[in-house]
C-alpha cells in the first residue's frame, strides 16, 4: 500500500540551527497520528515542508506517493492543511474564501460541497459573514473548512485546539474523529499528551528537530507511566 506520508532523512537548517534533523517517518492511509513536541521542536516546519511552503535542506517527503518538491501539484491536491492562523483578507466572507480556495485547486462549481462543509461545521448561517467578524471558535472551524474544499485524503492540523475552551475543544475533537472514521488519514500536532491520547493511535515525539519516540499511543503512555513510577520509587 502507498503510504499516506513517507518522509526519508528529511532535514531543514536555518544557519546553524537544525529545525529538522534526519527525520524518517511513514504514516499509513487511515491512521490517526500525532506529532507531539514542545515549542520549537520542528512540528510546524515539518507541516510547512509537506505543504510545499518550505524547501527542505536534504531528504525527501511524499504525500500519497507524490514528491512534495518534484510533484508539488499532485502532492498538494492530496493534502488538506489546517494552519494555526487564517491568512485570508478579513473582508472576504466565509463562502468567498472557500470559493477562492477551491479555485486555487482548479475546482469550479464547488457550491454543493461547500454548502455541505459549512453545514457539517455548523457554519451555514455564517456563509455571508466577513471573516473579520467571526469569533475565535468560528475562525477555527473556518480553518478546517478551507482545508476540506478539495476533498483531500490526508489532513494535517497544526495545533487545532491551542487556546480554545473546553466545549470547543470537545466539538473539534469530535469533528476530527469523524473525518478519520470517514477514511481520511489525520495527522495533528499538539503540545498536549492528553489530546494525542484521546484521539490518536500512533505518535511521534519530536524534540529539537529529532524524533525521540515513535510508538503506539498505548505503549507510549505505558512507558511514561513506568518512567514516572521509577522516578517516584528511586
Ligand atoms: P511551536 O509549538 O512553538 O509552534 P514547532 O514545534 O512548530 O513550535 P517550528 O516552528 O517548526 O517548531 O520551529 C523549529 C525551530 O526552527 C525553532 O527553533 C524555530 O525558531 C526555528 N525556525 C522556524 N522557522 C524559522 C525561520 N524562518 N528562520 C529561522 N528559524 C526558524
From TrEMBL:
<keyword id="KW-0067">ATP-binding</keyword>
<keyword id="KW-0547">Nucleotide-binding</keyword>
<dbReference type="GO" id="GO:0005524">
    <property type="term" value="F:ATP binding"/>
</dbReference>
<keyword id="KW-0813">Transport</keyword>
<dbReference type="GO" id="GO:0016887">
    <property type="term" value="F:ATP hydrolysis activity"/>
</dbReference>
<keyword id="KW-1003">Cell membrane</keyword>
<protein>
    <submittedName>
        <fullName>ABC-2 type transport system ATP-binding protein</fullName>
    </submittedName>
</protein>
<feature type="domain" description="ABC transporter">
    <location>
        <begin position="5"/>
        <end position="233"/>
    </location>
</feature>
<keyword id="KW-0472">Membrane</keyword>
Amino acid at each position: 500500500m502507498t503510504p499516506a506520508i513517507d518522509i526519508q532523512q528529511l532535514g531543514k537548517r536555518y544557519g546553524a540551527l537544525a529545525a529538522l534533523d534526519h527525520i524518517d517517518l511513514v504514516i499509513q492511509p487511515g491512521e490517526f497520528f500525532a506529532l507531539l513536541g514542545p515549542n520549537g521542536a520542528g512540528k510546524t516546519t515539518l507541516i510547512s515542508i509537506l505543504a510545499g511552503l518550505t524547501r527542505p535542506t536534504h531528504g525527501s517527503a511524499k504525500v500519497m506517493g507524490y514528491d512534495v518538491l518534484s510533484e508539488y501539484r499532485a502532492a498538494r491536491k492530496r493534502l488538506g492543511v489546517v494552519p494555526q492562523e487564517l491568512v485570508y483578507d478579513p473582508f472576504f466572507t466565509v463562502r468567498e474564501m472557500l470559493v477562492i480556495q477551491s479555485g486555487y485547486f482548479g475546482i469550479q462549481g464547488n457550491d454543493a460541497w461547500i454548502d455541505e462543509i459549512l453545514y457539517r461545521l455548523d457554519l451555514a448561517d455564517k456563509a455571508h459573514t466577513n471573516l473579520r467578524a467571526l469569533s475565535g471558535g468560528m475562525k477555527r472551524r473556518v480553518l478546517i473548512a478551507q482545508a476540506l474544499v478539495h476533498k483531500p485524503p490526508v489532513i494535517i492540523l497544526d495545533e487545532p485546539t491551542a487556546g480554545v475552551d473546553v466545549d470547543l475543544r470537545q466539538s473539534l475533537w469530535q469533528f476530527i474523529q469523524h473525518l478519520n472514521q470517514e477514511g481520511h488519514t489525520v495527522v495533528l500536532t499538539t503540545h498536549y499528551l492528553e489530546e494525542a491520547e484521546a484521539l490518536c493511535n500512533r505518535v511521534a515525539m519530536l524534540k529539537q528537530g529529532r524524533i525521540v519516540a515513535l510508538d503506539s499511543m498505548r505503549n507510549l503512555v505505558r512507558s511514561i507511566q513506568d518512567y514516572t513510577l521509577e522516578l517516584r520509587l528511586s
